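Figure 2 data, in text form.
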Amino acid sequence: MRKKVVKSEPTVIKINIKEAEKPNKIKIVTIKKLSDYQTDLQKNRSNIIEILMNSNATPIRCRGGVGYACCFCAEQFPDPADLKKHTIESHDEKTKLNFMKGKDIRKFYAKLDITNLKCIICHSSIDTLEKLIDHLKIVHKKTMFTDIKNQVVPFKFDSERLACFICMNVYHKFKTLLEHMNIHYRNFICEVCDAGFVTRANLTQHAESHILGSFKCDHCPKIFDTARKKRSHEKCVHTHSDTLNKCGYCSEKFKDYRKKERHLIEVHGINNNLKCQACEKTFTNQREHTIHMKRLHLMDRRHNCTECNMTFFSSSDLKSHFVKHTGLRKFECEVCHKAYGRKKTLREHMRIHADDRRFKCEYCGQAFVQRCSWRGHMRAKHGEQV
């Protein structure tokens, strides 16, 4: 009969608010003894080395400017499969034995690609990291510790989408997926809000969000209610603004992310188009994709008309609609002096004078100035619902 694996309970962290009223002074009381915690860290390090030595699991240092970064050298690969191949072919057992040497495991945790996971001793295919640990311990008699809080976080890259293989949530950035994994690996729990975290360091950083006060930016007059918001502002706006949007290929710096994306496409031929999961439409940047999802698929309508029951996605949409209620027509055609309530409607009207017949029937070749005329033609003459 298989022996039941006993796993440790999460460590609950208590935050003493009274002791933390001064900025950056957060007193944390840990229920578990520090000596036990240090022992857990040593066991985690031992487990990680055994996993790397006896499987094809690939460690990921981070997601850099070019791609997924190797833990043993400076190479980066846009495709995780290429990183796996590189690690297996370029780095030997001696190199893997030094994995995480000199790293503070209290802050650092192993990020492992377990796509197509196999035991290299017996070549068995294994589905999860937990099953691999049990397999190495029971079948191959390796020293594997199963009574600890696991600080090894697994990822699978077996589809086009970047998804959590545990709950199948989809993400567009590896960083966002990393933050999500705290939900599944609740090693350290905040007593205030019950949020869980992989490492104690992550929870300590999170604890600052519960300490409210007045934190003034060191570079401008802005004031924030938490020290964490202050530091984030200073990093994004003042101290690291020129490195946040740095090209990973040529190190050129940009003021905003959209300029960097345009540079990647035009100069390096890197096109990271985002595909909508609902309608398969593609977008060149995250902002356009987010707006599309909220407007069309999530039906985000937070702007309400005060004159009727209609709701709108943006304030500009509401402003455009409100013309119906005011009757104001301030956009006048210079040719025929017709007036319109919206500038967009005037632009569409001007195509009549320019004889701009951009809507063409693919069956008979007849062209139309307005889309509504083309739709009417397609329905009446060709039976097409467009």
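Caption note: The CA atoms of residues 4 and 146 lie 10 Å apart.
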